[in-house]
């Protein structure tokens, strides 16, 4: 019974991660539109506030669950702890930990965001570029403070 419970947790978490990635692809569209909206404001202070609100709203979604405040690394750690604390056979524990490690590497590793969600990453780069351009313009003599 415990074995199937843990296997189901791993499978459910993988399904959840995949659905979150799909959600973030959709959010990329809104991030792009929101970033363009930040540029449409004429007042510098309002632009700064808008850019940071956009940052907070969209990038907090990268690591948070919809169901709570537990981040993906915390959830992975909890699953690993449950596996290690279980009374399952050592070989089965290793196999499950291997599956969790693959899940972590394939879906949550640094390069995985570029492979699995290129849309979001392109828009994230655009947002970052927009912030840099804004800051350069802000501190330039002809535009800035």
Supply the key terms.
145 residues; mainly alpha
Give your account of this protein's structure.
This protein has 145 residues and is an all-alpha fold. The chain is built from six helices and no strands. It has one domain. The chain is elongated, with a radius of gyration of 20 Å.
Assembly type of the shown chains?
A: single chain
| Number of E-type strands | 0
Strand content: under 5%
H/E topology pattern = HHHHHH
- Domain count: the total is 1
Given as residue ranges, the uncertain stretches (5+ residues, pLDDT < 50) are none
| Radius of gyration, CA atoms, in whole angstroms | 20 Å
Q: What best-fitting shape do the alpha-carbon axes yield?
A: elongated
Characterize the main sheet.
Answer: none
If you average the pLDDT, what whole number results?
A: 82
Structural class, by secondary structure, is mainly alpha
The number of helical segments is 6
Percent helix: over 70%
Strand-helix topology:
Blueprint: H1 2-39, H2 44-59, H3 72-85, H4 90-108, H5 112-116, H6 118-139
Helix pairs in contact: 1-2, 1-4, 1-6, 3-4
Write a compact overview of the structure shown:
With 145 residues, this protein is mainly alpha-helical.
């Amino acid at each position: 019974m415990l074995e199937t419970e843990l296997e189901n947790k791993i499978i459910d978490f993988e399904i959840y991660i995949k659905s979150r990635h799909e959600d973030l692809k959709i959010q990329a569209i809104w991030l792009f539109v929101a970033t363009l909206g930040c540029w449409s404001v004429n007042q510098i202070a309002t632009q700064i506030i808008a850019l940071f609100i956009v940052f907070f709203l969209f990038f907090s979604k990268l690591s948070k669950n919809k169901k709570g405040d537990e981040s993906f690394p915390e959830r992975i750690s909890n699953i690993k702890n449950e596996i290690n604390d279980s009374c399952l056979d050592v070989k089965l524990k290793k196999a499950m930990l291997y599956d969790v490690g693959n899940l972590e590497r394939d879906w949550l590793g640094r390069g995985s965001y570029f492979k699995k969600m290129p849309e979001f990453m392109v828009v994230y780069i655009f947002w970052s570029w927009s912030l840099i351009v804004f800051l350069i313009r802000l501190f330039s003599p002809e535009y800035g403070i």
